[in-house]
Amino acid sequence: EAISYDEFVAGVERYRAHLRLFGASETEAKVALFIGNEPAFLQVFFAVISLGLIGVPMDPNWTKVETEQVIDEVNPDFIVASRQFNQSLIDAFPITFFIEDVPEDMREGLDYSPNDVSGDTLFYLGFTSGSTGVPKGFYRDHRSWLTSFMAGESVFNHGQEDVFLAPGPLCYS
Length: 173
Known about the structure:
alpha/beta
């Protein structure tokens, strides 16, 4: 599925305003994302990290036990889900809101601006697939993430005019 840059930004602003309605303003609060491979995943993720929160993508291929273990370990402040996500995994958790329920005109009259975040602000709590046991978590901050892109540019000799394909689930780094 393809969306324009304007549609992408409008979605980010819409979800950011909706997150603020639910009180998502504490820097580094954790937001579990039960959203699959759809544009809304990236829009919600960008809304989360631009507020200084920590995005925690959940894998739709985990078992219910693995998902429960991760949720128990993470203890998220908010859970945002898509109704298209693996229903057996989201039924057991208190969903803060479903992305499909966020009104298209959510931004009108609300603050949807990003927060100021520093390079050492945590923004991502990723997990391994769990193929060798319980999925293991790791944190990333903004600076480490950007530094990894600069290293990739140097090693792979690519620039802003190049096009990339990153196949695989969006729930992985």
